[in-house]
Amino acid sequence: MSTAKTVTGFNFQDEVVASATPVIVDFYADWCAPCRMLGPVLDKVATAFEGKVKVVKINVDQDPELAMRYRVSSIPKLVFIHQGHVVGQTEGVLTERQLTGVADQMVAL
To answer: In the prediction, which pLDDT does 1 show?
Structure first.
């Protein structure tokens, strides 16, 4: 079973920007209740789309520079990246069905 991988400023370039597969980036914080609700949904999508879409998590408290770069003002915030470019973003909790729909669209890019 695959889970969302934690990424930091040190490996963001390799894991996200240079990724050959589309990436769902979850900006979160440990203290954020909605973020904790989204975690299991992200893990299910990571498992279902393993090898097709990468799912990563960035803690905004530990990496405020990345949060600023992607203009994170509310969490959870999901940023959808394909070939190093932002192709979409959402704020708030998504259902598994909604996130699966987004992942399907990313695979089709």
So the answer is: 59
Concerning whether 89 is annotated as a catalytic residue, the answer is: no
Q: Strands of 1-109 (E only): list them.
A: 5-6, 23-28, 54-59, 77-82, 85-91
Q: Is there a catalytic annotation at residue 32?
A: yes
On whether the CB atoms of residues 56 and 25 are closer than 8 A, the answer is yes
CATH fold label, 5-107: Glutaredoxin (3.40.30)
- Identify the active-site residue in 29, 32, 48, 93: 32
Among the options 35, 42, 55, 99, which is catalytic?
Answer: 35
How does pLDDT run across 42-101, given as a tens digit for each residue? 999 999 999 999 999 999 999 999 999 999 999 999 999 999 999 999 999 999 999 999
What are the domain boundaries of the chain?
5-107
